[in-house]
Amino acid sequence: MPLELLHALARAPLPVRITDPTDIDKLRALQAAGQVRAQIPQARQGLGGQEEQPPAVVFEITRLGMMAVQTFRPPTHDPAAWAPGMPLPNSQPSFQASLR
């Protein structure tokens, strides 16, 4: 979830380099929402036809991004009941639900 990445970035010393393609996709969403200022290179086709994603660099969390960090706390989870990739438990609202 992009919000979890935004919270992680808020705790990190900037600039920070992001290498995981999944996190880079989340970073694209944060940049499109105006919450971060980042340099995100286009993915390119490498040898053997596989797509390669060069690292991205986050330079700043914008004022809008800091407002999101302060307003929307990251969800807390019981590690025994939840794992990445599983839907969130019903007792905890998702980020989208909190926007309604």
Characterise the protein shown here.
It is a single chain. By secondary structure, the chain is an alpha+beta fold. The chain contains four helices and five strands. Helix content is 35%, strand content 17%. Mean pLDDT is 79; it is low at 80-100. The strands form two sheets. Strands 1-5-2 form a three-stranded antiparallel beta sheet. Strands 3-4 form a two-stranded antiparallel sheet. The chain has one domain. The chain has helices at residues 2-11, 21-32, 63-71, 95-98; strands at 16-18, 36-39, 44-45, 51-52, 56-61. It starts with a helix and ends with a helix. A hairpin with a 5-residue loop joins strand 3 (44-45) and strand 4 (51-52). The longest helix is centred in the N-terminal third of the chain and has 12 residues, at 21-32.
Task: Provide keyphrases for this structure.
disordered C terminus; alpha+beta; 100 residues; 4 helices; two-stranded antiparallel ribbon
Short précis:
With 100 residues, the chain is α+β, with helices and mostly antiparallel strands.
